[in-house]
Amino acid sequence: MISKGLRWLRGGRSVSQRFPEGLAPWRVVGASITGSSHQRFGEPCQDAAGWALGPERSLIVAVADGAGSAKLGGEGARLAISTAIDHLTGRRSLGSGESHEKDLIAALERARSALASEAEDRGVDIRELATTLILLQATHDSVTALQVGDGSAVIEDNQNGITGLTKPQVGEYVNETIFITAEDAMDRVETTTHLGAPSGGAVFSDGLQLLALKMPEATPHPPFFEPLLRFVSTATDAQTTGEELRSFLASPRVTSQTTDDLTLVLFSRDDNLAANQDRSG
Amino acid sequence: MAEAPRLEDAVEFAENPEPRCPCVLLLDTSGSMQGAPIEALNRGLKTFKDDLMRDPVAPKRVEVAIVTFDNEITVVQDFITADRFEAPTLECQGMTHMAAGINTALDLVQARKERYNESGVPYYRPWVFMITDGRPQGEMPDFVDLAAQRIQEEEATKRVVFFGVGVEGADIPLLSEIVVRTPMRLRGLNFNELFVWLSRSMHAVSDSKVGEAVALQPPGWTVPD
Fold it and tell me: Does B215 lie at the interface with A, CB-CB under 8 angstroms?
């Protein structure tokens, strides 16, 4: 069950779409690649990402990283994303600003129930479907994000430049994190709302953490994001843009730093796109 | 439109210290290891180094320390990244002061974590990999019990992952009372394969994300019980 508007990203493929297309006023480009460590051990990519246009031309982005130690982590990640996005795109309206965080939490709850029934159907422990989840909703005047686990969401606006919306949730050990399948996940979920018109942003899985964030504070490293956000804001063709992002993630400069699965979704807002959108139907 | 620079050239990375993946080899060098066993172990250590160097990230991430136990406890090598590690040639003599060795290994791990924390270096859960061909010898039973208790506590609080490997002649039932995880039994003197497995497991750990357990390749160098 996948909603019509959902753009999928998984297993090392980039999505093919043309700008401007149904997402106006947003340009979105994402890529997900299987880390070399997973390739070596013959494991599939356990990251997943998706995005869709929500009510009132808001943008919904979701990134999930299935647990490497869970047998079905990749499937858990994809199911969490499709369920959460279905829920968020199915709303009639955005409601007031105060409801945005609650809506993301409700989407997380849906995703958790979907994983629980999936585990039951398959007769497996829900931990086999363990995954992290980041949800982001951007509107014309605010951005709300929810996170369980690692990875991060950052945004850019004209006043403050690039700032972090969420931070990776890690334990003592660098590879330890929280999954939405954990019993206490609802107590550990973090939500943030940024008020102000976003010009762009990024959501990414933990594979990029050490390259994109200054640790241990986990603040975004602007020289990492600025070229990427410029790249998406000037993109004209989604397919070549997706391919270029993918080859960046697969380039030796990146893969010599990390061998984990990598997922990066970039977006920018361009109000001129909306006008074109109306023409192209 | 002017050609935009390739992303690869335009994007700059944050400079963060490489996360570290500490591993203590806790090795029995008592008299009974004399001859073929210690020679095989020494060759295995060289294989360990070579195999770690084959990985793109392990040489900078995996930190190796070596503690030997016989009549004495010796820190042959304090933690050092795999790229700077040189395999030592170990010699053997005397009794099997295993419990004291366990304490030294766990102290070393604790001290290392403090160093990491002071310098803001992210790290993985440390491993202690104990290899023995015998049982504690020349130590009071209470002292051995305390060491076993310490392993239990540190495993329960996820401070360390402690593996026990028995070479032929090892008292496996007793070993399984000391370590929490089921001890593994080395097939013959297959140290080479053991260290290749350990190195691969460290590769897996050093770029993994684990929830509960480390997804390891099944060891091919063990004999079933």
Answer: yes
Rounded Cα–Cα distance for residues A15 and A208 (Å): 20
Cβ <8 Å between A215 and B210: no
Q: Which of residues 75-114 of B touch A (CB under 8 A)?
A: none
* Window from A168-182, B77-91, B126-140 with minimum mean pLDDT: A168-182
> Across the interface, do B209 and A256 touch by the CB < 8 Å criterion?
no
Interface contact B11-A234, CB threshold 8 A: no
A236 vs A85, residue with greater confidence: A85
Contacts for B178-185 with beta carbons within 8 Å, 24 or more apart?
B178/B98, B178/B102, B178/B136, B178/B144, B178/B147, B178/B148, B178/B151, B179/B130, B179/B148, B179/B151, B180/B151, B180/B152, B180/B155, B180/B156, B181/B155, B184/B219, B184/B222, B185/B222, B185/B223, B185/B224, B185/B225
Q: What percent of chain A has pLDDT over 90?
A: 60
CA distances B189 to A183, B40, B41, B42, B217, Å, are: 45, 6, 8, 11, 20
List all residues 6 or more positions away from A154 whose beta carbon is below 8 Å from its beta carbon.
Answer: A162, A163, A164, A165, A201, A202, A212, A220, A225
The predicted model gives A197-223 an average pLDDT of: 93
Q: Which two tokens stand for residue B112?
A: 């290392």
The more confident residue out of B124 and A273 is B124
Complex ipTM value: 0.81
Angle CA A223–A145–A64, to nearest 5: 80
Residue B46 dihedral angles phi and psi, to the nearest 5°: -65, -40
Q: Chain B residue with minimal CA distance to A235?
A: B4
Residue A234 with chain B: CB contacts under 8 Å: 4
The three-class DSSP label of residue A217 is coil
Give how far A175 is from chain B: nearest CA, Å.
4
Instruction: Give B81's strand partners.
Output: B63
Looking at beta carbons, which residues of chain B come within 8 Å of A173?
A: 123-125, 158
pLDDT at A95 over 60: yes
Residue of B209, B214, B217 best to disrupt the A interface, most CBs of A under 10 A: B209
- Quote the mean pLDDT of chain B: 88
CA distance B30 to chain A (A): 34
pLDDT at A10 over 60: no
Element (H, E) at A33: strand A26-33
